[in-house]
Amino acid sequence: MKRFPIPRPLLLLLLAMAGCGPVPTGGTPPPRAEPDPPTAASADPGALLSAYHWRLADARDARGQRIEALFVRPGQPLQLDFADGRLAVSNACNRIGGAYALGPGTLQAGPLAATRMACADPGLAALDQEAGARLDGTLALAIDASGASPRLELATAAGERLFFDGLATAATRHGSPPERIFLEVAATTRPCHHPLIADQQCLQVRQVHYDGRGLKTGEPGRWENFYDHIEDYVHQPGVRNVLRIDRYTRRDVPADASGYAYVLDMVVESEDTTR
Questions:
Q1: 95 and 112 in contact (C-beta within 8 Å)?
Q2: 224 in the same domain as 120
Q3: Structural domain of residue 210, as residue ranges?
Q4: Is 67 in the same domain as 95?
Q5: Tens digit of each residue's pLDDT (9 = 90 or more) over 98-112
Q6: pLDDT, tens digit, for every residue of 146-164?
Q7: Any alpha helices (H) in 141-249, and if so which ranges?
């Protein structure tokens, strides 16, 4: 069996604000549909930037030609996230990030830095540089919040224009800050044994706890069928994971449905039990 633990220094940072509430797994499985994202009514650019994930929808050079080098990952467009004065760029070869500040109609980003993972695909390997070259520095910023979802436009000094569509974050959709918990997901699933989903397989989960040093504490909870959905998590048969989860309290849900929404924040530990 091959284990893939996360490096201790990073784990310590990621676990520092962990929560420790109980995990409701029984009862009637909740409906899969999430509430519609809110409309972008706020005129505050800072609030809008942090309330949405920004996914690259179009990019044009000064002549109006599409910048193809920024679209080498079909189905996984470059994504910008703004939080606590930091800009994070994902869906490139590496994760890119740095500080940012807003001015009147401007975004000052950087200096940006990237992790150092190698990518075999030349186009993907070049994406870090292509994205960083256009996002690092002072950019003209405009946000169109008139539609059902906002659109962000960033323009470089060279006349290039990047357009990003806003996708509401989980905190925006659920209207409250999350509770941070950790769930261990077993490598195998089991029949759900529930009248509404009797023909389906359920994840087997138990809650685990960490201290401020990144060490597991206490005894894990008991294994249970998990009837909810973990957003952004795809289970691979034979792989055991420890997940860091943001758990949100749902609003206006039926009395017999789960009162929580679970969103994957990161995979803390992964083990392929088939090797």
A1: no
A2: no
A3: 2-36+174-272
A4: yes
A5: 999 999 999 999 899
A6: 888 899 999 999 999 999 9
A7: 170-174
E-assigned strand segments in 111-249: 113-114, 137-144, 151-155, 161-168, 179-185, 190-191, 201-210, 216-217, 224-226, 230-231, 239-249
Residue 205: is its pLDDT beyond 70?
A: yes
Give residue 100's pLDDT. Answer: 96
The pLDDT-based confidence of 167 (bands split at 50, 70, 90) is very high
Based on the fold, state whether residues 190 and 251 are members of the same structural domain.
Answer: yes
What's at 87, amino acid-wise? Answer: L
Count up the domains in the chain and report the number: 2
Q: Provide the residue type at 18 as one letter.
A: A
Give the global pTM.
0.68
Domain end, chosen from 130, 146, 172, is at: 172
Say if residue 225 is in the same domain as residue 236.
yes
Q: What span, in angstroms and rounded, lies between the C-alpha atoms of 63 and 240? A: 50
pLDDT at residue number 251: 73
Q: Are 132 and 210 in a shared domain?
A: no
Provide the CA 250 distance to its chain's centre, in angstroms: 18
Supply 106's token pair.
């401007």
- Using CA atoms, how far apart are residues 202 and 224, in angstroms rounded to an integer? 9
Q: In the predicted model, what is the mean pLDDT of residues 48-63?
A: 95
